[in-house]
Every structure is written in C-alpha cells, then in structure tokens.
Task: structure prediction
Amino acid sequence: MKSIRKSNFLLFMLPSVIALLLVLAIPLGYSLITSFFDTNLKYQGLGEFVGLQNYIDVIKDVYFRDSVKTTLIFTVGVVILEFLAGLVIALLLNNIRKGRNLFFTIIIVPMMITPIAVGLIWRLLLHSDLGIVNYVLSLFGISGKAWLADASLALKTVMFIDIWQNVPYMVLVILAGLVTLPTEPYEAAAIDGASRTQSFFRLTIPMMLPTFSVVLLLRTITALKTYDLIFVLTRGGPGSTTEVISYHIYQQAFRYLEIGKASAMSYLLLLLIIPIAFLFIKISRSRTV
Amino acid sequence: MKRTSVRILSLLFATVLLLSFVLSGCGGNSDEDTTSQNTINILMEDVPDTQCVIDNIADFEEATGITVNIESVNYSSMHEKILTQMLSSTNAYDIIVVDCYWVGEFVAAGWIEPLDSMIESSGFDTSVYIDSMMNMVGQVDGTTYMLPFYNYMLALIYRTDIWSDPELAEGYKNETGKDLAAWDSLEDYVEACKYITSVKGDEMAGAVMQGLRPDPIAMEWCNYLFSCGGDFYDASGNITINSPEAVKALELYVDNMTNAAPAGSPGYGFDEAFNVMAQGGAASYVTYNWMLPKLENSAESNVAGLCDVAQIPGGVSLNAGWGWAIPHNAANKELSWKFLEWVESFDVCKARALSGGSPTRSDVMSDADVLAACPYLDTVKSIMETSKMIPIMEDAPQLIEVLGRELSEAVTGAKTAQEALDTVAEEMASMT
Result:
C-alpha cells in the first residue's frame, strides 16, 4: 500500500518536475554556463571559455557598480515609502464602514496598469513644456520642473511613479492581513483601558509582523528587478543617474549582444536576491508551522 | 478500480496540459507555415514613410495576389524584436527594415541575405539611388544587402518668421554686431539661439533639443561633431572622437542645451522635442528632415507655413536612413524580393514622396512633380551630398549606447566634455 502511494506521488510529481526543469532549471543552468564564456549573440555557439573573466570585468565596470548603488537607493526608498503609505491607507480603509469597496477599487487601479503604460502616461504628464503637471503647478504660481531631465530630480521622479503604482499592492496585502486579525485581543485591551494608539502598537503591529515581513520581502525582490519603468521614462539618464542593474543587464544583452557578461551580471543580481528569497521562505515556513 | 481510473485520467490530463504547454512554447507557428506560400510579413518602424507604404499596398496585393502584413512598431522595441527572430531557425518576418547603424552588426552576424543575385536576375537598377544612401544602407564591401528605403538625414529646421523678425534681428545686431540668421558656424548658431531664449523667455526657446539616451542625443550631437570638423576615426583608422574638434563640438552642444534649450530637453526624445516645436515653443530644431512636412501640416502643427529646412550651421549633417533587407532565415525570399522590386520602383517611390515620404532615389528627388509638391527636397538633396554617416562597424549599436551615455553625462555636468569623450575613445578601442 505504501509503495503504491509512493509511486502515485512520484507519478503526479513528474509533470511539475519536468515543467520546472524546462522553464527554470535549464535556463538558469545555461545562463550560468554562458557566464563563463565570451558568448555573443552575433556568433553561433558559446564562444571561448573565459573562466571568471566576465565576473571580473563586471565588478571592474564602474557603471555596473554605479547601477548597484542606484538600485539599492531606489529599492530602499520605494519599499519603505510604499510600505508606510500602504499601511496608512490600509488602516484607514479598515476603519471605513461605508463605501470601502469603492475606495478600494479606486486605490487599486494603478496596480492594474502595466509598468510600460504607466511610464508612457507619466512621461506625457511630466513633459516639462507641455505636460499637465507643470501646467497645474503654474496655476498656483509654482514654476515647473524638468522632472525627468534634471539629474537631481530624475531618480526621485521615477521613485515617485513607482510608489504611485505599487502602493495598491501594499494596501491589498496589508488590508487582507488586517481584516483577518482576531477581535478578542482588542476587546480585552479596551476593557483594560488601552487607548487606540496603545492597541495599535501593542496588538496590531505584533500580530501583523508576519504579513509585513512577507510583503516587504516580496516587494524588495521585485523592486531590485525594476526595468520597464526606467526603460520608458529615462533610459538610465540623464547621465547615468537612473541606471539600475536590470537596465544595465538589458543593455549588455540586447544592445551589446554580450550574453556572457549579461549572464555574469544576472548572477550577481541573483546573489543580491537569493538571501532575501531565503529569508522570505523561512518566514513563510515559520508562519505555517 | 474507480479510484485507479480517476488517477489515470488525472495523470493523463496533467500530461496533456504539460505537453501542450511545452509544444506551444517550442513549436513553430503552423498558421504561418500554411499561409506563407502567398503572404509576406514585414516589420517596420512606425514613421510617416511606413504609412505611405501601407497606403499603396493594395495595388501590390491586387497585382500579385500576395497578401502583405505590415507590423509597424515603435523604434525602441525594433532591435530586440528583430534580434530574437534572427536567432531562431525560422523568421516570422519575410522583410525587415534596418537602421543605418545596425548594418555592420547585421552583416557581420550573417543575419541579412545578399541581394546581388536577385538584383542581377531581375535587372533592378540600383544606380538610381543617391550614392551616400547606397553606401550607407545598400552595399557593404561591394555586396548589396539592402535597398535604401527612406532617409532621415538630420538638418536644421527653423522658424522663418522668428529668424527673420526685424526686431529680434536689430536687437541681436546691436548686441553682437552680427546678423541673426547668418549661421556660418555652430558658434554663431548657438549664440543666436541663446539670444532668442534670453529675449523670449518662457514663451520660446532658441532651440529645442533631444537629449534622451542613447540614440536621440547621439544622433543630434553627431551634427555638431561633423560641423566642427571632427569625426569618429581619421583616414588611417585612428580614433579621433576625443579630438579638440570633438571636444569643442560637445562644449557647444552642452552650452546650447544648458542656456538655450527648454529645461526638459536633456530628457526629450524626438517626438517630445517635435511637440515643443509644433506647439511654437522653439525657434529651431536639429532633427530628421522628414519632420518638416509634419511641421508644415496644420493638422499636426501650430506652426504650419512657418518652417523651413537648412544645412546644419558649420556645414556637415549626419546622414542616416533605413534599408529594406531580407532576413537570412526568411521563409520565402522570392516573394520578399518581388515586394522589394515593387516598393522601390520609381512610381511607388514617387507616390510615397508625394504623400510626405522621404526618398532615397535620385530620380525621385529630381522629379518635377515631386519638387513642385515638396520644394524643400532640393535643399535636402544638396545637404545629403555633403553629409557624413556613423561608421559602418560591427559594434556600432554599442558605440551609440556608449556615446549616448557619455554625452548625457556631459550635459548633466557629471563629466567635462574632454572626460566624457575620453571615456568614449577608451571604450571604442575595444570595438570592431
């Protein structure tokens, strides 16, 4: 009986294992191999074996190092601000009794739009001569800015747009966590004379910590991989002020066609993401145990 | 027994799902295979000339019975779209258009089919093309890989009413002792642009510019480079991109961008800069010559009837253009050639030019009807004859990326002109 169960288990697992191998393991393995060759899409085959030279070149590349720095600033900035904004909105929505669904639907709209469309829309809105943002500011006597062309503003502008798009995701997850919180601890706290602030810091925050961890980790991983917004909004400019790792990898792979170097860069990005992913798995498991 | 059947069915279902998923990802497009006998798929950029081709396509379909599908996409996604098709065993496109600075890369990779045998057997005359176009998007080392499609040579488009405004001209003369519209050099042009911006304030800039990375800024600056006497390489093949002439060209470019152009210019692509010009926000724009008919079209522009085209101050424009090519892995090369013969015939090229296209054939550019409808083409043709192009080299797309990044660094002030161009020269040393 036990052996039949075991064979059934293996049989049912097989399609998933094959699918995972095809879509995940093989591309990952292949790109790991290419990272040790001077593979170029212009020529057939893997090219010459270069060992760790691609990794050495990438680490020496000043623009790659700058893109790591820009990516970290971008990620830390957007994740923290999106989380805080998402928490505030979710708390407000959680306390609304009438029209909650309407507010929720409106707030969630930006999340439904693809990043490419978001980029194009904001590029039009922020056009420094003909855009509506500067026009509205001018009505209040405020002079407009070159939002995407000023080196001191461009990264902040891209971060703002990313926040605009991704706050709904934070709201969605945090609100889902808030509505599932048990009411008993709050009732007990109220009987004991706890204020709303005390309840928030002593009950809500501790009970929501697992949800916060998951949402922060997932968002950190996606923010580290941001590419589409940069491609549409700034192409890494002005200068190289908005050049993030994923855009740098795109250039290496699809403009320079140097797949070997692009693979090495991708693995270095993976090194950044893997610890975060492991942390996420650990927290997810600790929640289910 | 019943439980076993359910298990077997479930397993079968899962396997079918997996197989269909795998096959849909790996297999070729069977629909295309069955209809490819009489259908041509073409990838083109979404520009006015493409629309001119689309407008005339019914004639070809009617005459030959061949169906033509044209996929017109934004420039930014074209290179990647073509690239993925070139690397697969069969190509979804029977014909592609190739930008001038992709030519070296495509030829080196063997991605486009030599056309000489087809040209010879059909008797197609390639001598009708303007030499500079044929040398750029036609032949490479004596082999014909493309037929020139349309030119997008850059030139100076300017507002005739502003540059001939007596009040402005008098003020400028009093201040500098020079004539406002006497652009003998780039220095004169930049100085005049700065003057117009200082006089007009927020109302109008002396020049609108396209500083977006990588190709808009690189293409625009090349006009400054050539007009200041600089170039990418000298006659012996030595890198000269950081020569004193090139540094001067970049300093003038940065000066114009910083002190004459609208504040948004360092981030503008050509469409955004065009909109500023079309709304009357700028007195001049170094841009693609095909922008002129768009600016002169009152449906698209507020400055229709007020614009003209001229040589870049300093005298040397960047020549640029697109060529028709047949991918090495195209399904039916004979059909593709049949289409190219038709689309590049005199009558079709003339019709395209009359509806706002940008010709590459000398006979079309000199045609009386075409010149009557588009008198500016006479100027365009003369500018084209002295223009220069981005060198045809395998790593030209990489060169444009590096150049675009470094020019943008100079515009933001992160690097001096010399530092930025030294970096370009350093990276060019490893390019082929």
